[in-house]
Specification:
The protein is of the alpha/beta class. The chain is about 35% helix and about 15% strand. It has one domain: TPP-binding domain (Rossmann fold), CATH 3.40.50. Helix 3 packs parallel to helix 6.
Length: about 190
């Protein structure tokens, strides 16, 4: 373990940024979240998310297939809350319905490309982004690429255990936690 604690912060960190897990960042236990590499209470992470979204110039939510397609019970309710989150936060939505590379060229105004998420961030001048409903294997790679090549502040709302390479990562996202996050953002906007 390193003597100096590794912080997961906005980049650009370089062409080959280290994986946060290799730098000693651990995933949080249930009831906790990650905030720039530190394990914190979920509510502290939600407060940071609210502050970042309320102060962002161009926040964008990237919903993935786990939110976009009605594949399991409860997905429609969660998708409606993601839309409400975007409305409350004043965020745009760029869906990621499919991760397959679109060659020879993608349109970064329309979609994020699995091999080049940084292009979408640059092209749209995104300063804060949220991944929600994105498969973990793809989110891990994309978050590292974004951190390596952009100054975008990344947030992961994960239904599983979270993502070390996001600046803020919440785990076990369900409808209740999503509604609580929306309430915190509404409170932050009103104060």
């Amino acid at each position: 373990m390193c003597e100096n604690k590794y912080k997961v912060v906005s980049g650009p960190e370089g062409y080959l940024p280290p994986a946060a897990s290799l730098m000693g960042v651990l995933l949080p236990d249930e009831g906790s979240a990650l905030l720039e590499g530190d394990i914190v209470k979920e509510e502290d992470a939600m407060q940071q998310i609210a502050k970042k979204l309320c102060n962002a110039k161009n926040p964008v939510i990237f919903p993935g297939p786990l939110i976009l397609w009605d594949w399991a019970d409860g997905v429609i309710e969660k998708a409606k809350l993601v839309k409400k989150l975007a409305d409350v936060a004043g965020a745009k939505i760029i869906p990621m319905p499919d991760y397959r590379p679109k060659y020879p060229k993608i349109n970064p105004e329309v979609e994020i490309n699995p091999n080049h998420p940084n292009i979408t961030i640059w092209h749209n001048d995104i300063d804060v982004c949220i991944f929600v409903g994105v498969h973990c294997h793809y989110a891990n790679v994309a978050l590292k690429i974004i951190r390596g090549g952009t100054d975008c502040y990344t947030i992961s709302l994960c239904a599983e255990v979270g993502h070390e390479d996001a600046m803020v990562s919440m785990r076990d996202l369900d409808v209740k936690k999503l509604q609580k996050l929306i309430d915190i953002i509404e409170n932050e906007k009103s104060s």
